[in-house]
Every structure is written in structure tokens, then in C-alpha cells.
Design a protein that fits this description.
heterodimer; A: Rna Polymerase Sigma Factor, Chain: A; 74% helix; B: 71% helix; rod-shaped
């Protein structure tokens, strides 16, 4: 008998019938990716964790509305995007007082490399829309069409945000390129 | 510095960002690779983009401070009827068993009790007894009437003699 890992759509079907363990397995598969995506968006570990919890709660409650279980990841990240921006909108006054977006308050012990810190800073300088485009493409590996669904905007807008972000990052990280090229 | 090959037809210049992000179609990707092999200017542009992506990839994924737990949360536990319904839907054998059990229970509720049976039997016996008593009374009355007739006949005969 060939061992086959249970696929996400199977777990979704079970979770829809009230199988909490199946949903728990889905959470364990996706929580780290969702958390890291949210961490870069909201720039705070506790907020990212709170929003992650909300995302998975909302996803569980909305599972019956998921039309195509094979597109779970995009659907989940759309919920995450909406939750994150909803939280950011609620906290806009604080953000504006804080001024320029700051890099995520990461544990410095986990980022020993200079390059990694430079990336963190460069990402922090992008606008939230540009940063999110980079996160979805570079770190989560979504296609342009999937990103357009998650962000609920045309593919041309996705490309515009991402390409501008890449140009800015290319400039910001150019000194690091020289360092690494040496 | 621009690539001289695409200076004459900039509209056909490959989208190098889409190329490094693996978003070009197969044909466009092959065409772009063929050009890259011969053009140092475009090669450098792509190399810079790749360096940027490589730098981005050095960003470490953060561990979660704590896991998101759902099993312990009562909110997520299905109610007893949901569990029963799910079990029924999942297993036809179990569903058949439930049906049989329900039928037995229903029959148990619908079946008359022993007291009702006893009452019905008593009533039926009473009816039969009453009917028999009525018949006996009718026969007895008829017998009395015939006896009287016989007695009258006997008296008339005696008087005529």
C-alpha cells in the first residue's frame, strides 16, 4: 500500500463535517506561513499572532462558503489580508504618529546576518501595498492571478506594485550586492 | 545602457521581472533565455534582479511564539446532534442501525400495553357473557311461555272432559 499524505481538500471536507482534528491539521500546515505574512504586514509579533488566530477562526466559520477547496491557500490569504488591513485601518492614527514604517520588531537573536537586517529594513521602507505584493510573490509563491484574487484588484495593479517594489529593493539592496559580490 | 537588439522593437522586449519570477509562458521564457545567452546587457539586468531576489530570500522565517490551538476550544466542538448527523452521513451501516433502533423504539411506543390488552379481553369476555345471558334469558322466557301454553292446553282438556 502506498502511503499518501492527506491533501488539503480532504481535510477541508472533513472539517466541513465538523471534524475539528482535520481542521487542526490544516491550521498546523498553514499557521507559520500565515503568521509570517502577517508579521511583515503588521510589524508586531503579538498583533500578528492575534490576527492569525482571527484568520483561522474566520476561515473555520466560512469553510462552507469556500467554493473550490483546491484554492484554499489563496482564499486563506485573502482572509488574512482583509483582517490585517482591517486592523491597520483601526490603528491608523497610531501608525501615522509613528511616522515611517518600521521593520518588524523581530527577535534580533534570530537575525544575525547583516544582509537579513538590510532586507528587513528595505522591506520596511516600502508602502504597505508594495510590501504585501513582495510577500505574496517572493515569500508565499503565489501567481499574479492568485495575488489579484487575494488583493481583489486587477493583475496589472499587482504587477505595478510588485515591479515598483522590486526596483526600490534593487536600489536599497545594491550596496549589499556589492558586499556579497566581493 | 540599453540593449541594442530591443532598441528597435522595445514592445517585444522580454519582461525580465516576470522572467525571474517565473511568470512568463513557455514560449516567452525560451525566447528570453535565447536572448540572454547572447546579450550581456540584458544578462546583467537579470543578474541584478536575481541578486535582489536572493537577498530577499535570506530573510528568515519567524517561529511562532505559540501555536494556534483549536482542539481545546469548546467553540469548535460540534454539538451532539451534529456529531450524530455526521456519523450517520459518513457510515451507511451506522445509518441502517440507527433506523432499525428507531423502528424498534417507535414500535415499543406504539404497541398497546398489557393493561390495555387485559381491559380489551375483559371487555370482550363481558360482551360474550352478556350476549350469552341474554340468549339464556330469552330461552328461559320462551320455555316459560311454552310451559304456560302446555298448562293451559292441559286445563282446557280437563275442563272439556
Amino acid at each position: 500500500m502506498i502511503f499518501r499524505e492527506v491533501e488539503d481538500p480532504d481535510l477541508i471536507a472533513k472539517a466541513r463535517r465538523g471534524d475539528v482534528e482535520a481542521y487542526n491539521l490544516l491550521v498546523s500546515r498553514w499557521e507559520k506561513r500565515v503568521f509570517n505574512y502577517l508579521l511583515r504586514l503588521v510589524s508586531n509579533r503579538e498583533d500578528a499572532l492575534d490576527v492569525s488566530q482571527d484568520v483561522f477562526l474566520k476561515a473555520y466559520q466560512s469553510l462552507p462558503k469556500l467554493d473550490d477547496p483546491t484554492r484554499f491557500s489563496g482564499w486563506l490569504f485573502r482572509i488574512a489580508h482583509n483582517e490585517a488591513f482591517s486592523m491597520l485601518r483601526r490603528r491608523r492614527p497610531e501608525t501615522e504618529l509613528a511616522g515611517e514604517p518600521r521593520p518588524a520588531d523581530l527577535n534580533p537573536r534570530l537575525l544575525p546576518m547583516e544582509l537579513s537586517m538590510a532586507v528587513e529594513t528595505a522591506l520596511g521602507r516600502l508602502s504597505p501595498d508594495q510590501r504585501e505584493a513582495v510577500l505574496l510573490k517572493v515569500y508565499q509563491g503565489f501567481k499574479f492571478e492568485e495575488m489579484a484574487e487575494i488583493l481583489e484588484c486587477p493583475v496589472s495593479t499587482v504587477k505595478s506594485r510588485l515591479y515598483t517594489a522590486l526596483d526600490l529593493l534593487k536600489t536599497s539592496l545594491a550596496p549589499m550586492h556589492k558586499e556579497t559580490a566581493r | 545602457m540599453n540593449c541594442s537588439f530591443f532598441d528597435s522593437k522595445p514592445e517585444s522586449k522580454p519582461d525580465w521581472k516576470a522572467y525571474v519570477l517565473r511568470e512568463l509562458g513557455q514560449d516567452a521564457h525560451r525566447q528570453a533565455e535565447a536572448h540572454l545567452a547572447t546579450c550581456s546587457i540584458c544578462h546583467e539586468e537579470v543578474a541584478t534582479l536575481r541578486l535582489t531576489l536572493d537577498a530577499l530570500s535570506t530573510l528568515r522565517e519567524e517561529e511562532m511564539p505559540r501555536r494556534i490551538a483549536f482542539v481545546s476550544d469548546k467553540v469548535f466542538e460540534p454539538r451532539w446532534w451534529q456529531r450524530a448527523l455526521n456519523q450517520t452521513v459518513r457510515s451507511p451501516t451506522f445509518a441502517a442501525g440507527v433506523l432499525v433502533a428507531a423502528a424498534i423504539l417507535l414500535h415499543g411506543f406504539m404497541r398497546p400495553g398489557q393493561a390495555q390488552v387485559d381491559a380489551a379481553v375483559t371487555q370482550a369476555v363481558s360482551q360474550v357473557e352478556a350476549q350469552h345471558m341474554q340468549e339464556i334469558r330469552a330461552m328461559s322466557e320462551e320455555l316459560d311461555m311454552r310451559n304456560k301454553q302446555v298448562a293451559n292446553l292441559y286445563r282446557n282438556v280437563m275442563l272439556s272432559q
